[in-house]
Specification:
The chain is an alpha/beta fold. The protein has ten helices and seven strands. The chain has two domains: about 35 residues; about 220 residues, Rossmann fold. Strands 3-2-1-4-5-7-6 form a seven-stranded mixed β-sheet, sandwiched between helices. Helix 4 packs parallel to helix 5, helix 5 crosses helix 6 and helix 8 runs parallel beside helix 10. The termini are far apart.
Length: about 260
């Protein structure tokens, strides 16, 4: 009876009304997703005026629409704001570890070019390494799958995406496994972004990149939702081995993106 009643009522709602309602719902959802970009336009971003802030927001949106991105607008906006917050007279490049198809790389390259910094990108360009880490569910209840070879983006693919949508001239792509490429890296780092999925890769990146952070610099991890990576980030012994007590880690255990600021 209830289904028959719904069948009778449904034709009474004009198709145009249903389509308008769906359009409104889609618009609200899109507005929620893209709100951080609007906030970027109207908020402070270094010394940039509204026109330049709007241009950056538009470019970030274009990258997101054309290159697969594993992050949300709010997460990338937080990192970019930090890049602009570092005084221009402070030394330090921007570092990314784990770039997938180059969506985050293109966005970071835009911020790097605007602030006069280099972007150094570490990635195997072969996907995740073979591993025996037993990831189960994230803190949000999602199933994690980090088999070897996943999230691969060829170096030429990443370079082409950055050339098309970002600022390839400020980028240096460093191919290879982190444990092979990072030990030789010695440059001061203003802001770092690691999205590496594995606990062992997180440990490697922290061990090599955190000591290079300038005073007041920030290292972001996009793996704050993964229990095995959380264990690494909380490991006091690891931090002592790096050279000091465990720093304040904002968002650990509650957010996917966590930030680690080097004490001033």
């Amino acid at each position: 009876m209830e289904e028959e009643l719904r069948t009778r009522i449904r034709p009474l709602v004009p198709r145009s009304v249903l389509e308008a309602r769906r359009a409104v719902i889609r618009g609200v959802r899109r507005a929620r997703r893209e709100w951080p970009l609007l906030a970027l336009q109207f908020g402070r971003l270094g010394s940039l005026d509204f026109v330049r802030r709007r241009a950056i927001a538009d470019r970030l949106l274009t990258v997101h629409a054309n290159v697969p991105c594993a992050h949300e607008h709010a997460e990338m906006v937080a990192i970019i704001r930090q890049i602009f917050d570092i005084p221009v007279d402070r030394p330090g490049c921007i570092v990314e570890a784990g770039c997938f198809k180059g969506g985050s790389t293109a966005k970071l390259s835009i911020a790097a070019a605007e602030t006069g910094r280099r972007l150094v990108v570490f990635d195997s360009f072969e996907g995740l390494p073979e591993n025996d880490e037993l990831h189960d569910k994230t803190i949000f209840g999602d199933v994690a799958d980090f088999r070897g070879g996943k999230y691969a983006g060829r170096m030429s693919e990443v370079s082409d995406n950055v050339r098309r949508w970002g600022e390839v001239d400020v980028c240096e792509l460093v191919p290879g496994w982190f444990e092979d490429t990072m030990p030789a890296f010695r440059e001061p780092v203003a802001v770092a972004f690691i999205d590496v999925d594995l606990a062992e890769s997180t440990r490697t990146c922290l061990s090599h990149l955190y000591p290079l952070l300038i005073s007041g610099g920030v290292l972001f991890s996009h793996d704050g939702h993964l229990p095995l990576c959380i264990e690494v980030l909380r490991d006091a012994r690891m931090w002592e081995g790096i050279g000091g007590p465990r720093p304040i880690i904002t968002g650990l255990g509650t957010s996917k993106l966590v930030s680690i600021q080097k004490p001033r």
